[in-house]
Write a structure and sequence with these properties.
6-stranded mixed β-sheet; Purple Acid Phosphatase, chain A, domain 2; alpha/beta; 309 residues; globular
């Protein structure tokens, strides 16, 4: 009798957790605010809106409306760190979501779901090792996605660099194509940054790194070339976390303590701020979040204070 009651109780808890994770928390969008000192003394602040892992499906109107509402934050710059698409026919919905940022400077890189449609995952395998790239998967509308970004005037940082002038500061952005698919070409980073800086007629206030999946090799490379801050996504913050323990996986070789939030990444004698977004969406085949709500991040880049001591 006791064992039956216990079974029923555990089953009820599991159902309640699943309902909470799928119906409530994954739609509990929030904005995380961060502020870091990386600009030259006296420089004007720059408000950077970090969007990642939108995984948008055509029917997700609530998500579209929430993203459109982020325009009220009045960012100076938008950084997209990949996996914007979540369905083969998502580009029109993503166009509605991002069209409010027309006229705002932006940069982007791609994630695996910007190349391949989502597939049904094996959650048990996911907990123990990073998911394997699905090179035989259904291709997604990458051309349509790139056309959208191009129409917004945003810079493609897939294994490339770009110079952006924002609020009087000259910034070099450099990024990689998706490391999870092994599309990153790290040997190009230093050359790309050096070439961009050579063409400039003004001092560079900061180098900013952008990547989808924050594998250690990429973070080390970006830190080594002098990135003051690095933006990344991919981890979903762990997506399903245990209160008091945190993320169980990062789907990469990134330590679990870095699964989301603003941290400092150290590489030999250099360091960089590292902002890993928990992401806005989830795969349509794994629509759950627990103790890890979806987020966009507003990062304010501020001037370094002058120390007179």
């Amino acid at each position: 009798m006791l064992s039956s009651a216990l079974f029923v109780g555990i089953a009820a808890i599991c159902v309640a957790v699943l309902a909470y994770s799928t119906l409530y928390e994954r739609n509990r969008f929030r904005v995380r605010h961060e502020s870091i000192e990386v600009l030259e003394p006296g420089a004007s602040s720059i408000r950077v809106l970090h969007l990642s892992d939108i995984h948008l499906a055509p029917w997700q109107n609530r998500k579209v409306a929430w993203i459109r509402g982020l325009a009220s934050l009045r960012p100076d710059l938008v950084v997209v760190t990949g996996d914007s698409l979540g369905h083969a026919k998502s580009v029109p919905a993503l166009t509605r979501a991002l069209s409010v940022f027309e006229g705002t400077t932006g940069v982007f890189v791609h994630g695996s779901n910007d190349y391949f449609a989502p597939r049904i995952p094996n959650p048990l395998t996911y907990l123990f090792r990073p998911s394997k790239p699905d090179w035989d998967g259904e291709r997604i509308d990458t051309e349509g996605l790139d056309a959208l970004y191009s129409s917004l005037g945003w810079f493609d940082l897939d294994n490339a660099s770009a110079h952006v002038s924002v609020n009087g500061s000259s910034i070099v952005f450099t990024g990689t194509d998706d490391p999870h698919l092994h599309l990153d070409q790290l040997d190009l980073l230093a050359k790309s940054v050096d070439e961009t800086r050579r063409l400039l007629q003004e001092p560079v206030a900061a180098i900013v790194g952008v990547t989808h999946a924050p594998y250690r090799r990429v973070l080390d490379a970006l830190t080594t070339i002098g990135a003051a801050v690095i933006f990344a996504g991919h981890t979903h913050g762990g997506q399903v976390c245990v209160p008091g323990i945190g993320a169980l996986t990062t789907n990469s070789d990134l330590p679990r303590s870095f699964a989301r939030g603003m941290n400092v990444w150290n590489c030999v004698d250099r360091k960089a701020f590292l902002n890993v977004s928990a992401g806005i969406g989830t795969s349509i085949y794994a629509p759950v979040r627990f103790a890890c709500p979806p987020e966009a991040v507003l990062v304010t880049l501020r001037a370094t204070e002058i120390d007179y001591d």
